[in-house]
Write a structure and sequence with these properties.
FAD/NAD(P)-binding domain, 356 residues, 2 domains, eight-stranded mixed sheet, D-Amino Acid Oxidase, Chain A, domain 2, 8 helices, alpha/beta, 28% strand, six-stranded mixed sheet, binds flavin-adenine dinucleotide
């Protein structure tokens, strides 16, 4: 009898976990390595799938890639349902894009121009016309742009459900760092403190961390961490309304409201490697949030989460097959790793099937 094909997955963020799931679902015997799965950048993410509201000039390729993300998530959720008989909640609220003062409103207009260049025409909404959409929003903001098609999910729920599915599919979790990797013509190897693990192929999904030593990359991709925090507060419940994205004194603020009044406020973006949510960083985020949504005044701070977005030099994700052809490196998902996870997982599966 032919033995099961073996895959090693290094890194258990949203990219590694979903890749492990796709492989295991297709009959691969998967071993996943991570000292604390789900606690990297994935832990900090707001969970927006917002290709349109996230449009930035010069990021056309990212937009093209992300356009298919919501459908990819729907398909992925149905695969998870088949295994776990549980539903992954994907909430399609759209996004309300706001500007706080005159110059921020100019940024909203510029956003509309860029969106139009990408073929998307957001609809202008007046507060008088749809007061419920402006619930809690500063009275000085009289209108906004409504972007349909954006959605959110809870990354904690994704991690929990994919972990459950992976357990049912027999994925082995090794709660250790991989120190080094190697390969020859017929197999890959990963070394941890407790020993050596072998497989037929391997996927490195270490987010903003460099691949383990021994991974021979082409040099075409270099990863740098872009630090960010989200602050979670309990208060106003806008979960029936669109997500908010606002320009405020030139900064960008977003608010994702979940049922029960749990709101994710985000996000800072800083080019630094050190860990920790800095006081000034939290203060700026909360100040901007209170300016745009004064109803948050009495909200209670639940927690602050931080993580490092994995940014490539051109801010695009990549899936690089490494020298030797049996290891691949999946990273560079930057601000969009949750959005792009099912697409990245599909790439991991295609790679694995192409090797064997
Ligand atoms: C504040 C913030 C808000 C965000 N909001 C959103 C959002 O709303 N929507 C969206 O789409 N994206 C969002 N992102 C981006 C998203 O979180 C990332 O793109 C995504 O989490 C990257 O996933 P990953 O699996 O590559 O990395 P990570 O989640 O960082 O996971 C990498 C894992 O690899 C492990 N690891 C590293 N080295 C090794 C090793 N040698 N051996 C074993 N394990 C190792 C780490 O422990 C970690 O668990 C946000 C990011 C931040 C910081």
């Amino acid at each position: 009898m032919k033995s099961a094909k073996r895959a090693l997955v290094v890194g258990g963020g949203v990219i590694g976990l979903t890749s492990a799931f796709q492989l295991a679902r297709q009959g691969w015997q998967v071993t996943l390595f991570d000292p604390s799965p789900g606690r990297g950048a994935t832990w900090a993410a707001a969970g927006m799938i917002a290709p349109i509201a996230e449009i930035h000039p010069g990021e056309e390729t990212n937009y093209e890639l992300q356009k298919g993300a919501l459908q990819a998530w729907r398909t992925f959720a149905s695969a998870l349902r088949e295994v776990t008989h549980k539903e992954l909640c994907i909430v399609e609220t759209g996004t309300l894009v706001l500007g706080w003062d005159g110059s921020d409103r100019r940024l909203v207009d510029q956003f509309a121009h860029v969106a139009a260049a990408f073929g998307v025409i957001p609809r202008r909404v007046e507060r008088d016309e749809r007061p419920e959409m402006f619930e809690g929003v500063s009275p000085r903001i009289a209108d906004g742009l409504l972007v349909g098609g954006d959605a959110w999910l809870d990354p904690d729920a994704v991690v929990a459900l994919v972990n459950e599915a992976n357990a049912q599919l027999g994925v082995t979790i090794v709660n250790e760092m991989v120190a080094s990797v190697s390969s020859d013509d017929s197999r890959v190897e990963a070394i941890t403190d407790s020993g050596s693990f072998v497989g037929d192929i391997g996927v490195i999904a270490t987010g903003a961390a460099a691949p383990p030593s021994g991974a021979t990359t082409s040099g075409a991709h270099v990863i740098r961490p872009v630090h960010g925090i989200t602050v979670r507060v309990k208060g106003i419940d806008r979960s029936e309304q669109p997500m908010i994205r606002s320009y405020v004194k030139g900064n960008t603020l977003y608010m994702v409201s979940r049922p029960g009044g749990y709101n994710v406020l985000g996000a800072s973006s800083e080019e630094r490697r050190d860990a920790g949510a800095q006081v000034g960083e939290v203060q700026r985020l909360l100040r901007d949030a209170l300016d745009v949504v004064p109803a948050l005044e009495t909200a209670v701070i639940v927690e602050t989460r931080e993580g490092n977005r994995p940014a490539s030099h051109d801010l695009r994700p990549f899936f690089e097959v490494l020298s030797g052809g049996r290891w691949a490196w999946s990273s560079g998902h930057f601000r969009h790793g949750v959005t792009l996870a099912p697409i990245a997982a599909g790439e991991a599966l295609r790679f694995a099937e192409s090797v064997t």
